[in-house]
Amino acid sequence: MSDKTDKSTRVKARLPRGLADRGPADIAATERMLAAIRDTFELYGFEAVETPFIEYTEALGKFLPDQDRPNEGVFSFQDDDDQWLSLRYDLTAPLARSVAERFDSLSKPYRSYRCGWVFRNEKPGPGRFRQFMQFDADTVGAPTVAADAEAAMLMADTLEKVGVPRGQYVVKVNNRKVLDGVLEAIGLAGDENAGRRLTVLRAIDKLDKVGPQGVRDLLGPGRMDPSGDFTKGAGLPEDAIARVLAFTEAKRETACATIAALGDVVGGSARGTEGVSELGQIAELVAAAGYADGRVVIDPSVVRGLEYYTGPVYEGELTFEVKDEDGRPVRFGSVAGGGRYDGLVARFRGEPVPATGFSIGVSRLLAALKALGQVNEQSGRGPVVVLVMDPDQTAHYQRLVAGLRQEGIRAELYLGAGKMNAQMKYADKRGSVCVVIQGSNEREKGTVQIKDLVLGAKLASAPDRETYLAMQAEAQIEVPEAELVAGVRRVLARHA
Predict the structure, then answer these.
(1) Domains of the chain, start order
(2) pLDDT tens, 390-426?
(3) How far is CA 402 from CA 89, 212, 315, 359, 485, in A?
(4) Residue 11 DSSP one-character state
(5) Binding residue numbers
(6) Which residues are part of a known binding site for L-histidine?
(7) Which residues are noted in the entry as L-histidine-binding (predicted)?
């Protein structure tokens, strides 16, 4: 077969847009962060549950941007029964389906947490991926806003647990009933206005990104972003825009003052007044638990972009700034968010089922922790590498490796074809602390050499000859085979 034919059949190695490969350092850092989140959730009494990546498309319900086009916003396909299936858009809709199926057997309120990948068929961009990880906590079957207040406090505790210092984040709480009151007042009540309501919600949700003028444009005819992309607006008249903006600007110095300002905005709306009352209850609960010190605040700017929220909504926002590659200040903003969704489980059961919960954007939070210097960029020390000096003695080297593993020491046998220099370079790239060397001379004496790669790398920077000789004596030691485990442990302990 010719080289030309080989090239013509070669598959191009390319990663689909909006996806990312992850290396060992990123995976290790993520696992450490997930463990911290899991510990905090379990401290609050939440238990783990897992749902599949794939759901019937109809089960996603209001998550779909357009139900007439199942592939819009989600990755969908049909099975051999012509049923539409979709990769989960987030972790909340699958939970609602799961709870509805097992409703009678579950103890209620049902408190669960889930972690996993979700998929969105959207245009990728900076910080926007088609596959990303979320970590959720939800309480189903609790009608009282005490569950919402607790979720906001859990969000605060979780951010601190993973390494965000107090004072560098804030959990903002609002209530969709208040906004519903405003929307009723400007004539956007009823199913016939569902699309325009969603446009308004998404416009307000972008307040931190585009500012008040950007929101004003999105509430009106639309907005042209710096890239030249145009987003169609809600088409509201000027007086309606002014009322919506007054809602977003109702935050005052204290929770009581903010709640009073919101009461003025909703006017005579019964639903809006109910929402304001619930915010007052949440503020009281938060204060009683000691979280009204700036950690959890009432803030009307939080709306959440999905329409299925029915009551309190909350968002964890990072307040510190970092510099981008050009030295410009950048804020990470929201890394967690959620709220009450009393109608989601009810879609399956035909009866009201109260529920509330939130989701943490794992990848975004990890990026923020890296910016704070709270993440060790290393994946951890590599394994001890046993070099193969004499290929015909591979079985003997394998026995040395097995002995290390039996004692709980990460170890591997060099399986390449390189000579000693290549094997040493391999161990360096693996991040190994030490290698085990046994040539024919050592084997005849029943000994092994243990070379400390970390100490060896420091020899060149020794301040004087005396220090150099002392370090050199420790950088490569010879021990009896029977003492291999003890010798390796001594080296590993030196750099623990």
Answers:
(1) 24-191+244-372 (3.30.930.10), 384-494 (3.40.50.800)
(2) 999 999 999 999 999 999 999 999 999 989 999 999 9
(3) 45, 65, 50, 43, 11
(4) P
(5) 90-92, 120, 134, 138, 304, 308-309
(6) 90-92, 120, 134, 138, 304, 308-309
(7) 90-92, 120, 134, 138, 304, 308-309
